[in-house]
């Protein structure tokens, strides 16, 4: 196994343990402290998502200026230190500092994540990128299933203090894993001669000048808008469409998670045979059909089957997108491209999430899921011009 790939995977494993233990421990702790206050619980999501809007593009630009290994190691160390600082404040001060454990880690991840993408680009041969991304996304998929169990177990068994300490140790272990990466290559001297603002502008120009990346951005927009409509409404599939107690929602999540694990493994096997844009188009199409079925279904097994196929195809979307970004972007622009496209997806998702409840009252649950399916079809249509295209990363002269 490629040593760079091995170090990134082990780092990812430790990070996922830390993130899921932190997220669920904080969620359950805040619910306990506030008796389930909706505003306090929503602030956890704000702490997770707000840094993506504010810091993603800035973090991506700095990731292009800084050495990726050093950036990732320091981000993990600083995340661990911030978590331990929160732990001390928890012991001697107020419980409300737990929000900062999520906020600071989320900010630092906006600098670390694009650096990880740069390492994939720098150290993996073109033929191995899609396989590498498949393994990486499968790790995320496994934790979508195991993470909530792990986080809940840690909090219920050890309480908030030990859970936060586990998070800090996991971040430190991630930093240790990254020290096994080869030394960073010397960065282009030209990078130091431009200002941060000039580099941010050139990043936007780069995306606008590259047809593939512009289309990918529109695809992100469609998927984000679609997901936002249904993200807060899954519970109503169980209570309204299936007429079951709300506790049965866990079975829908479980089927989705199992599908994601199998989907990630499947993409690993076929990675070299299927182009990433075809994976992405197929994933968008099947997810659109799955969402349409979910909205219409009143049968538990049909709903579970649709959830399974949605989960099965989600890695196709994630791996297709990440592989396309890596294949169609020059190494010097990876951070900025990532920093532009990610907020497009998250921003559009949060936008429709914020109006989903209100629109459901005006229309119906079926209408919401069918609208979401439409946006996935729209996203797929944007990517179709790339369907038969071969991979290429031509340099662009951008002023």
UniProtKB/TrEMBL annotation:
Keywords, alphabetical: Cell membrane, Membrane, Transmembrane, Transmembrane helix, Transport
Cellular component annotations (GO), alphabetically ordered: plasma membrane
Locations listed in the record: Cell membrane
Main location: membrane
Record-linked InterPro entries: MFS, MFS_dom, MFS_trans_sf
Residue ranges of domain Major facilitator superfamily (MFS) profile in the record: 4-391
One function term, GO molecular function aspect: transmembrane transporter activity
Organism whose genome encodes this protein: Peribacillus muralis
Keyword Transmembrane helix: yes
Name listed for the protein in its UniProt record: MFS transporter
Domain of life, per lineage: Bacteria
Membrane-crossing segments per the record: 7-31, 37-59, 134-154, 160-181, 215-239, 251-270, 279-302, 338-359, 365-387
Membrane topology: Multi-pass membrane protein
């Amino acid at each position: 196994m490629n040593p760079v790939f091995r170090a990134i995977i082990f780092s990812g494993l430790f990070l996922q343990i830390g993130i899921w233990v932190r997220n669920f421990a904080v969620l359950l702790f805040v619910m306990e402290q506030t008796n389930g206050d909706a505003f306090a619980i929503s602030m956890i999501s704000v702490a997770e998502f707000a840094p993506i809007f504010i810091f993603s593009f800035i973090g991506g630009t700095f990731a292009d200026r800084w050495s990726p290994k050093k950036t990732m190691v320091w981000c993990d160390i600083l995340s661990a230190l911030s978590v331990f600082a929160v732990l001390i404040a928890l012991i001697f001060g107020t419980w409300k500092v737990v929000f900062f454990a999520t906020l600071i880690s989320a900010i630092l991840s906006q600098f670390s994540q694009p650096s990880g993408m740069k390492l994939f680009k720098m150290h993996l041969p073109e033929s191995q990128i899609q396989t590498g991304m498949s393994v990486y996304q499968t790790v995320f998929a496994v934790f979508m299933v195991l993470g909530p169990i792990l986080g809940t177990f840690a909090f219920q068994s050890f309480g908030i203090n030990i859970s936060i300490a586990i998070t800090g140790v996991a971040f430190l272990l991630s930093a240790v894993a990254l020290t096994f990466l080869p030394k960073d290559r010397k960065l282009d001297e030209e990078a130091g001669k431009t200002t941060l603002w000039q580099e941010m502008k050139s990043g936007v120009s780069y995306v606008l000048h590259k047809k593939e990346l512009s289309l990918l951005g529109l695809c992100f927009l469609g998927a984000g808008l679609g997901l936002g409509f249904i993200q807060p409404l899954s519970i109503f599939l169980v209570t309204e469409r299936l007429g079951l107690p709300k506790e049965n929602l866990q079975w829908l999540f479980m089927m989705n998670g199992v599908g994601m694990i199998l989907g990630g493994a499947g993409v690993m096997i076929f990675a070299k045979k299927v182009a990433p844009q075809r994976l992405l188009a197929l994933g968008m199409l099947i997810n659109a059909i799955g969402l349409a079925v979910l909205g219409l279904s009143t049968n538990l097994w049909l709903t579970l089957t649709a959830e399974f196929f949605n989960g099965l195809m989600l890695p196709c979307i994630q791996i297709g997108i990440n592989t396309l970004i890596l294949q169609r972007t020059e190494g010097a622009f990876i951070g900025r491209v990532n920093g532009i496209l990610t907020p497009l997806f998250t921003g559009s998702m949060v936008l429709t999430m914020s109006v989903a409840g209100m629109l459901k009252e005006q229309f119906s649950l079926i209408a919401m899921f069918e609208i979401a399916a439409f946006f996935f079809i729209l996203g797929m249509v944007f990517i179709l011009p790339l369907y038969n295209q071969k991979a290429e990363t031509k340099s662009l002269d951008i002023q």
